[in-house]
Amino acid sequence: MYQHKKCVFILGVSIIMIACQTQSKKANHVSATDSLINGAGQMVDSAYREGAQLITSNDCLTCHAVDQKNTGPSFKQIANRYPFDEGVVENLAHAVIHGSKGLWGLKEMPQHPNLSFAAAKKMTTYILSLNDSLNAITP
């Protein structure tokens, strides 16, 4: 009986130690997406902050991340694919509102009909601003 209690105790302590180490590692790693979520865009250049805040307050981060592919492409992948100009901003805003299919594989991006065109443009302007190698347009 004593050996059983001792094994259970050791097992319990081991689980707690592993859980604490895992939490500690997670706490030390902060991704760009975590920063966007936790800062609600406060670390973003003021010209693009409203777009970043709109992204965090909608369901965008369910399928996208700033710098890692998720269900959909990362925002940086999008920024690296498209030139940063007004026509592209408007086309991407249209895709956000009306959905798209086939641009990034077989997954379909759902529609977001409750977003205004102006809000979708602010969001896509922020996304395209993530490509440092391009000159950004003024929002």
CATH superfamily: Cytochrome c-like domain
Largest β sheet strand count, sense and barrel closure: 2 strands, antiparallel
Highest-level CATH class = Mainly Alpha
Fraction of residues in helix: 55-70%
Calculate the terminal CA-CA distance, rounded to whole Å.
Answer: 71 Å
List the uncertain runs: 11-15, 22-27
- How many separate domains make up the residues? 1
Number of strands: 2
Question: Over all CA atoms, what is the radius of gyration?
Answer: 21 Å
Give the helices and strands as they follow along the chain.
Answer: HHHHHHEEH
Output the strand order for the largest sheet.
1-2
Strand content: under 5%
> What is the fold named in CATH at topology level?
Cytochrome Bc1 Complex, Chain D, domain 2
| CATH second-level architecture | Orthogonal Bundle
Q: What class do helices, strands and sheet pairing give?
A: mainly alpha
Shape: globular
Total helix count?
A: 7
The overall average pLDDT, rounded, is 78
Structural topology:
Elements: H1 2-28, H2 32-39, H3 49-57, H4 60-63, H5 75-81, H6 86-98, E1 100-101, E2 108-109, H7 117-128
Antiparallel strand pairs: 1-2
Explain this structure to me?
The protein has a single domain, classed as Cytochrome c-like domain (Cytochrome Bc1 Complex, Chain D, domain 2), CATH 1.10.760. Helix content is 58%, strand content 3%. The chain contains seven helices and two strands. It has a two-stranded antiparallel sheet. The longest helix is centred in the N-terminal third of the chain and has 27 residues, at 2-28. The N and C termini lie far apart (71 Å).
